Amino acid sequence: MSAGHELALVITQPDRPAGRGREMHPPAVKQLALELRLSVFQPESINDPESAALIRCIAPDAMVVQAFGQKLSGELLSLPRLGCLNVHASLLPAYRGAAPINHAILRGEERTGITVMRMSERIDAGEILAQEAIAIHPNWTAGDLSDALAPVGAELIVRTLAEVEAGGAQAIAQDRSKVSKAPKLDKSDGLVPWQKSAREVHNHIRGMTPWPGAFSFFAPAGSGHLLRVSLVRAVSVQDSPAPQSPGAVMKVGHEGITVACGSGAVVIERVKPAGSREMSGDEFARGHGVKAGAAFTSVSDRG
Question: Which among 24, 198, 251, 286 is placed 20 to 30 Å from 63, CA to CA?
Answer without folding.
Answer: 24
